[in-house]
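Appendix B, example 12.
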Amino acid sequence: MIKKDWFVAVAALLTASYFSACSVTDSESSEYSKWTFSGMVIDASTGRALEGAQITYLDTDGDIDTTETDENGNFYINNLPYGSRTFTFDYFKVNKKDTLYYTPKVFDVSSTNESSRMEGVVASASAIVRLSPLNAAVTGELYINDPGSGKKIPVSGLSLSLSHIDTSYINIFPKSFTTKTDSLGKFTFKNLPADTGLVLNVTDYTYKNIRYQFYGVALPRLTAGDTRDIGRAYLAQDTLIPQQQKIVASNVMDNNMIGYGNVSTLIKPYYVFAQKVHSSNLTVDVTADTSKLYVKPIIKDDTLFLEHDQAFPSETKIVVSITAYEKKSNERIQITFSGDSAFTTDRGLYAITSNAWPTNSNFKATFGIEDTMWVKFSDELDKNTNRIQWNYCSNVDRTVYGNGYYANAKAWVHKDTMFVQMDEKILLDRNQGDSAGFNITIYAKNGLYAEGFELRTELIVPPQSSSSSESSSSSSSDSSSSATSSSSEPTIDLSSSSALELPGEGQESSSSNATAESSSSTASDSSSAT
């Protein structure tokens, strides 16, 4: 939709709304009830007449009608019925590839006034309409006076907006009325009307827990085609809000004491005090939801570090409470960073893909004792599989355990991937299609961990004949001996297309493949013996 069509649509809506509310007498059809509206449209910045300015309104039949000003900027509209009419004025000028827009305005004009109502007549109306070109700009800077250091500090990232006190003004470039300060506290507004009536509004700003405000300030008159620099302005400190906290910096909060999101679960939080504090009588409580986390507080000069051996829980809001004493004044400081001041951790260690997930190209819907399930994680895993905690898995017929008293599977790790191969115990008293799954807590090499990770699938139960059952029973002792002598960690042929393919890994060399095939054959015999 071009600007001209947009003006017409706006005029139609506004005119329709006013027209529907008008009180029209029975004499509306009378020639004596008709009235005229005339006047002149001029450039508010230069006073020159605007030829071709468009006026949009609703005619007698309720249809959208338009007219334009002549070469002297004059307009004349007659045969208007009794009551009120809404007129929209707009103008734009094309200069080669550039178009200069003027601010549209809306006027509600009535055919009656106090004197005409007393006389019982219909009065005509006239007006001079001033439209301003949208080619002015304004710049400035916003600062605060830091009461602690006495320094003048630029305010960065603060949202600013403009409003117009003229109710007839239509803003066709809303984005031009909003901006933000940069890192040096500077701001710029462009495509503004070259006139008066603009008011600058600034959102409240908080620094070191002190709130600063900048109340609505009227801007000076703007000049067409020029940029007005209003200079440096200072936000006023809100004296009704006392300073409650004495932290000046942190790696888990910004300068406004708003906690960061997506913080690493391995982060070592630190807090910088405005004054040095004692290490004695220092207490720190760190909680995640309702759980208390262990941290070791360490004071170095004016900074408090929170050391911890175990990663913070993932995707959790962390609340920190500190009680300390300043060295100079021995003043007690008690701070709790909760709500917006609490920081939130990221995902930590998480599963990326698995051959038991339908989103993977190697997806398998069912698994048996000759199949291997694998899960690829976001970080390299700890090779010590004894650290993996195997828990009961709900909503399955059989829980898979990789170690412990209930062990019914073998588990091993290769880089960022964990492998699980079930043994024959899992098939005892099972039926075809029964479900199996595991619930684990697994650790990464860098200290991250994933708690309560679950994987569910279905079992393949091979059919057994009576002869195979007797054969299996007679050779159980030999099989047990053979299984004991074999390696507890199966070796997978990574080069074979029918064997397990590691996620994200390429093919091995021919010599490595030969060794892997030999190892895989030994592992397969051992598994069958088991």
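The helical segments are 3-20, 114-119, 466-474, 476-485, 510-529. The chain has a mean pLDDT of 79.
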